């Protein structure tokens, strides 16, 4: 096969796309373009082991597969524009790369708070560089830390900071409970209690109005006027899709890049999207296209998208079976783990304890029309085993209809 | 094919058990055990297990 596939984005999704293109039979050239200077690395430890100083960078790098030895890596370089009709992308060094196939794998970047105040002392956790800078600040003596955002990353960072011995760690969120958006009230309350028992403070039901300090942040001003003293602020308030380089091609970029059920973009058989930038319909559920920011999604999407693209480039048609991954995520905080299978967020109106007790190990089920659509285990091995048993049930369920 | 698991990295997530149940399993205490020299016919599922390991603790040799 001749020709070239350009993979825009050199994170896990870009790496998996390159690997899966080879596995799907593409023998032509593959060029992966990524703005970080590093080869792809594993991000979950950034908010945990890396922040705690327990994992050196070398331990995060993915092990290269032999089949991808001839992949060209253009690192420290960003794709800044594209002309899909002409099949070219433009890089920030001024060069243009023509392609036969394109994989959109540019992922997300952290959303930042846009309110008054100094920028110094405010951090996000998305890259290895972010985690290293934050670690240096957390290990300053007697640092007071305010985490804005009580989602998974925010709560993981708060737990890690407490584990490092940080004296004051406060999590701020406009919602009344941590992680309540994806998990609902029942687990939100259980998680709040566990975090508080381990020394994390919370300021819930309030937003951030601004930051105090001249050169550097010294406090966080809440919407009700309260000021929380802060030496370090961590902003974990969601993310923004890196799709600006796709502007001007008539694509739906309202939240990531919209794909069809084969992960093709804009009706073009030679352009596919992978990872958390892809907004795809999951045939397992209700037909609504969603982005999914779970660790398993780059691998799942890359496998399906690579088959779609390789079939097209070989002159054939893709397997008509639509993409239907079973979402899964986990989160380690303090000494407990959350383990989820399915789509709990679809079943927040009907949440039931399936086993155990919210005060201890618990297995929670999420339902739509009485049917299980997701499970979350909180606690130890027993809860995780219960979730694993439910996983089999979730896999067997017929698709939800729209 | 030889399967090597870095037990210093492994945190017993069990994703490999779903991907390759003939090679990986959990013992009664919830700790991972595995077959270190599985039949080559299981290569695809072992590769899948290595890919889905959240800690990237599984290595395939040979």
Automatic annotation (TrEMBL), chain A:
Identification of the protein by name: FAD-dependent oxidoreductase
Record InterPro entries: FAD-oxidoreductase/Apoptosis, FAD/NAD-bd_sf, FAD/NAD-binding_dom, FAD/NAD-linked_Rdtase_dimer_sf, Reductase_C
Reductase C-terminal domain mapped to chain residues: 329-387
SUPFAM superfamilies: FAD/NAD(P)-binding domain, FAD/NAD-linked reductases, dimerisation (C-terminal) domain
PANTHER family per the UniProt record, alphabetical: APOPTOSIS-INDUCING FACTOR 1, RIESKE DOMAIN-CONTAINING PROTEIN-RELATED
Record keywords, A-Z: FAD, Flavoprotein, Oxidoreductase
Gene Ontology molecular function, alphabetical: oxidoreductase activity, acting on NAD(P)H
Record GO cellular component, one term: cytoplasm
Record domain FAD/NAD(P)-binding: where: 4-295
Keyword Oxidoreductase: yes
Family matches, as Pfam families: Pyr_redox_2, Reductase_C
Gene3D superfamilies attached to this UniProt entry: 3.30.390.30, FAD/NAD(P)-binding domain
From TrEMBL, chain B:
Domain 4Fe-4S ferredoxin-type: start-end pairs: 1-29
GO molecular function: 3 iron, 4 sulfur cluster binding; electron transfer activity; iron ion binding
Functional description taken from the UniProt entry: Ferredoxins are iron-sulfur proteins that transfer electrons in a wide variety of metabolic reactions.
Name of the protein this chain belongs to: Ferredoxin
Gene3D superfamilies from the UniProt entry: 3.30.70.20
Keyword entries, A-Z: 3Fe-4S, Electron transport, Iron, Iron-sulfur, Metal-binding, Transport
Cofactors (names): [3Fe-4S] cluster
InterPro entries per UniProt: 3Fe4S_ferredoxin, 4Fe4S_Fe-S-bd, Fe-S_cluster_ET
Native organism: Streptomyces ferrugineus
The keyword Protease is assigned to this record: no
């Amino acid at each position: 096969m001749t020709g070239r596939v350009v993979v825009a984005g050199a994170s896990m999704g870009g790496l998996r796309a390159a690997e899966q293109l080879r596995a799907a039979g593409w023998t032509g050239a593959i060029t992966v373009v990524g703005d970080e200077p590093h080869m792809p690395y594993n991000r979950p430890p950034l908010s945990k082991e890396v922040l705690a100083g327990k994992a050196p960078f070398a331990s995060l790098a993915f092990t290269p597969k032999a089949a991808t030895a001839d992949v060209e890596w253009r690192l420290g370089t960003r794709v800044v524009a594209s002309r899909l009709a002409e099949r070219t992308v433009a890089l920030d060094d001024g060069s243009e790369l023509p392609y036969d196939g394109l994989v959109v794998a540019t992922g997300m970047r952290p959303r930042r708070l846009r309110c008054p105040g100094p920028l110094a002392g405010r951090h996000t956790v998305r890259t290895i560089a972010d985690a290293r800078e934050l670690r240096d600040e957390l290990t300053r003596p007697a640092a007071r830390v305010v985490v804005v955002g009580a989602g998974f990353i925010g709560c993981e960072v708060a737990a890690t900071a407490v584990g490092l011995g940080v004296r004051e760690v406060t999590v701020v969120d406009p919602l009344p409970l941590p992680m309540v958006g994806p998990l609902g009230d029942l687990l939100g309350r259980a998680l709040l209690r566990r975090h508080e028992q381990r020394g994390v403070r919370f300021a819930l039901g309030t937003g951030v109005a601004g930051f105090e300090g001249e050169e550097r942040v010294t406090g966080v001003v809440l919407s009700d006027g309260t000021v929380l003293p802060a030496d370090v602020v961590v902003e974990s308030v969601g993310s923004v899709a890196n799709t600006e380089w796709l502007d001007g091609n008539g694509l739906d970029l309202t939240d990531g890049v919209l794909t069809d059920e084969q992960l093709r973009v804009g009706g073009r058989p030679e352009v596919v999207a992978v990872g958390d930038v892809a907004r795809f319909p999951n045939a397992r559920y209700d037909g609504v296209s969603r982005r999914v920011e779970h660790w398993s999604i780059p691998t799942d999407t890359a496998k399906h998208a690579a088959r779609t693209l390789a079939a097209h480039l070989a002159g054939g048609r893709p397997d008509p079976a639509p993409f239907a991954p079973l979402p899964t995520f986990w989160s380690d905080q303090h000494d407990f783990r959350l383990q989820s299978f399915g789509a709990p967020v679809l079943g927040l109106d009907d949440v039931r304890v399936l086993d155990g007790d919210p005060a201890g190990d618990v297995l929670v089920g999420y339902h739509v029309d009485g049917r299980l659509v997701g499970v979350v285990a909180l606690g130890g091995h027993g809860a995780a085993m219960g979730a694993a048993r439910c996983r089999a049930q979730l896999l067997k369920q017929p698709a939800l209809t729209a | 094919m030889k399967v090597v698991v870095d037990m210093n990295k492994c945190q017993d997530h069990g994703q490999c058990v779903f991907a390759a149940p003939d090679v990986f399993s959990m013992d009664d205490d919830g700790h991972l055990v595995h077959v270190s020299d599985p039949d080559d016919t299981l290569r695809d599922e072992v590769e899948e297990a290595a890919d889905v390991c959240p800690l990237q603790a599984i290595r395939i040799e040979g």
